[in-house]
Amino acid sequence: MSIRAWLIAFVVAVSLLVGAPASTATADEEGSLAVRIDGLTPSRLSAGATIRMSGIVRNTGATPWTSVQAYLVIPRSPFESRDQIETAIEDGRSYTGERVVDAGTFAEVGDLAPGAWKRFEIKVPVSRLGLTGAGGVYPVGVQVLATDEQGQRSNDAVARATTFLPWVPDPAQPVPAGLVWPFTPTWRPADTDLEQIAISAESGQLRHYLDAARATPREARTIVLDPSLLDELARVTRPQNLPEGVDIPESRAAAVKTWLSDLRALVLDSTTWIVGYARPDELALSRYPENAEPLWKRVDEATSQSLVDYALTGSRASWPTISGTTLGMLEDIRSRGDGPVLVSRQSVPDWEPRLGSVVKLETLNGPLPLLVNGTLPDIPGTETPVTLRQRVLSNAALAALSRETDPAARSDALTIVDPNWDPGADGGTLMSQAVTHSGSGGLTRPVTATDLLRTAPLSYTGQVPEEVDAESLSASVLDRLATLSDIADRYDEVTIPAQRTDQARDIASLLSVRWRSEPALLDRAVRGETSKLASALDAITIDSPSTITLSSSRGGFPLTISNATKQPVLVGLELTADNPSLDLDDVEPVEIEAGERHTFTVEVDLEDQTSSTVTARLATDSGATFGDPAVFNIRSSNVGLIVWVAMAAAGLLVVATWARRFLGRRRRRNEAAAVPATPEDDDE
Questions:
Q1: Burial 207-243 (b: 16+ CB within 10 A, else e)
Q2: 559: left (phi over 0), alpha (psi -120 to 50) or beta
Q3: If DSSP codes are grouped into helix, strand and coil, which group holds residue 319?
Q4: Which UniProt key words apply to this protein (predicted)?
Q5: pTM for the whole thing?
């Protein structure tokens, strides 16, 4: 086909791909129809095939629809590259293709009351479509026409869904293909509905998602695990820890335990990448690096400890948000290690499929591997296992065409699955067809993300945004989280047994990107956790008098620590004096039971000082201080030498006094004996 012909075909296809303008019926807010494709054969077109498409049409509105019909739509010419498909998908003004209206080629669905649904099936031989043939990917879909309750029937589609059908010859070498299954909490971080989570793990989205991942062949399966998911689900299995008013039946809790066991077995049996606990807001930590180091320490601690608790292993990886990746962030990530980073097309705008899903980015700290989510943009209709299978096969077909024209191309069909997606009860088997050699008819071969990392990926030399408009956690929140982390360190060191594991996970959870949309609730949670720990530490106090008087320059005095908390603590005292010449020994930590007091005897030597102001602080085993200090004055009466001198002087004075009296009496007696007696004396 000539270039001119291809250009004409491309323009026609672009004008036909996505869907019709909204009809007057779809503009009616009281009524609407939805359609999904859950069956399509063949998965790859050929000249002699018959396209069989099936699915469900549902009335999601409050008014009835009548004479509902489902039509196959497909363009006559295929797309040859992903660029063409993406351009067409982004053009929301166009159809999927030409509507096939020949008798017997469309489905009569009938009437649909509000809330009702019916199945449809369309069969159209490829020979009746006039397709130009092999060499690309055909968008194919279903359009629904119907009559509304006013009797109006537009020729525009009321509902539509789209998927893809590749028509390519068998490649010389099969294209690497695989599925990446991220496991992370997808619900709101606050006000979590544990009952709904339990139901999801028992028989809903979580159960279906896990089963589909298990059905993917091991050699084509990559698991990306956020360990916080395990803790979130484990909460449901502990009745004693459930919030008031939440009652999880024993059978349902048992189903959650089974889910956790199955996930653990899957992780151990797969190529697994472990991302930071609760997916921390890496954009915020890069924007406001003042507190990044202690907070990353908490994330790493929480991640490592959770892996130990669940006996899991895996390669460390990073997973920023779709629109929250900057060059500075990637530099920061590389400075902490060389693990791979999951990024979106927005983060590497110059990325081309020919480079492959895994590329390396040269940073100041060395090469950094990037796993690019190169999936096609959203298309009309609900994603089903069939449409995902077709998306993988179509990517593989386009990759095969790219490799044929460019021998240096690394194009592949590695596909990252949305963790919010519900593949249904039996979706895994269908999807696995796209990533195996036999299931794809020789088009693909299974591969993991790690396999692609080992093949010396090509370098990405394009642009990476310096700044992005995405919101992140604020600098003030990171400040408060850093303060909380410091208080938690003191609490962990003091309490017996230490609560370090739980504290690290609690703080890491508050760093999650899931809090971005709920800043007020996050602020309340951080303040509440800080207040709780600070109050616990404040319950440990020092009792001391304001003044202590020693009988000499050297002596001991008592200090008492009171533990008013509900658990044992290990705490000591740091003693400092305002007089630098006074040396006080710190008091080694001792264990004090909950509600008990412990009195220490502190020895001090004032030497020639008469007084000094002393400050006593509570201290942990590592020497870190906390709490309100006790400040008191120590005085010495200093009577030792003075008293003895005074006593000696007093003794000498007494002796002297006695001596004077004794000598005086003797003198007076001697004088009296020397005087002669007179008559008067004799008369007396």
A1: bbbbbbbbbbeeebbbbbbbbbbbbbbbbbbeeeebe
A2: beta
A3: coil
A4: Membrane, Signal, Transmembrane, Transmembrane helix
A5: 0.84
